[in-house]
Design a protein that fits this description.
Order of helices and strands: HEEEEEEHHEEHHEEEEHEE
Number of strands: 14
Helix content: 25-40%
CATH class: Alpha Beta
Shape: globular
Strand content: 25-35%
Strand order of the largest sheet: 6-5-2-7-8-9
CATH architecture: 2-Layer Sandwich
Number of domains: 1
Length: 243
């Protein structure tokens, strides 16, 4: 039996030779893409039913003429840059009112999240609106979580989407809350299946007590891909509901 490392070297050499022959023939070699392994680390977050939004923070600097440019904080919807004059359910106005603390908290970059709450989609039984960031690697723990906590202490309605599970695709351990009590469940089933069932049973983590959550988003680390599963009508295309 050939050594796997030797076989890999032979395969690499064969691919190189095939590429060389293709160039000689005047055609471009196109390899089959590498396939990521499914049963690898995933992060499952709650999918919040609001409207997709983002906050952009452009740092202080200088333009092409050498003139100083101050920091800019702006808002965008899924499709456009928005302002308080041409807004999307009040998001741009909220960003403009809180531009200083948002710029200080988030720092330079484009920060995507969900704008949700009263008057937006299912509303979650709330009387206010919130912005929940998608980037859990940065905002769900550590310094990022502390920065968001400090912003909330200053009255800013900002958080990170709840992380419901992080680990391998199968044989998962899920923690959830029911009536304020922490519960743990171990499952050999696929983690997304277990998490969506727990979410239906325990209700929203983003809005505790709200028993009609939308679903989950799965981030597969090995492939860098995201997938979503909804609690209801998941087999239907977006916008189509069962009669």
């Amino acid at each position: 039996m050939i050594d796997p490392r030797k076989q890999a070297a032979l395969d690499k050499q064969a691919a190189k030779e095939a590429s060389h022959r293709a160039k000689i023939a005047g055609i471009e070699f196109t390899p089959w893409p590498k396939i990521a392994r499914l049963n690898r680390e995933i992060v499952i977050t709650e999918k919040i039913d609001g409207t997709n939004a983002a906050i952009g923070v452009i740092p202080e600097g200088h333009d092409d003429m050498g003139n100083f440019t101050p920091r800019r904080v702006y808002a965008q919807s899924r499709n456009n840059i928005i302002t308080s004059e041409k807004d999307n359910v009040g998001f741009a106005a909220w960003v403009e009112r809180n531009a200083t603390i948002l710029g200080d908290t988030l720092g330079p970059g484009l920060h995507f999240g969900e704008w949700w709450g009263v008057g937006i989609q299912r509303g979650y039984g709330l009387s206010s609106r919130h912005f929940s960031l998608f980037n859990t690697a940065r905002w769900a723990s550590g310094e990022g979580a502390l920065a968001l906590s400090n912003a909330r202490l200053n009255g800013l309605a900002i958080d990170c989407v709840p992380v419901l599970y992080e680990g391998p695709w199968t044989e998962c351990i899920i923690e959830y809350f029911i009536n304020g009590e922490r519960k743990t469940i171990a499952s050999v089933d696929w983690a997304p299946t277990t998490v969506i069932n727990v979410l239906k049973f325990a209700g929203s983590r983003a809005a505790p007590g709200f028993m009609q959550p939308e679903g989950i988003v799965i981030f597969h680390k090995a492939s860098g891909s995201m997938f979503k599963v909804t609690c209801e009508d998941d087999a239907q295309p977006k916008g189509i509901k069962n009669a």
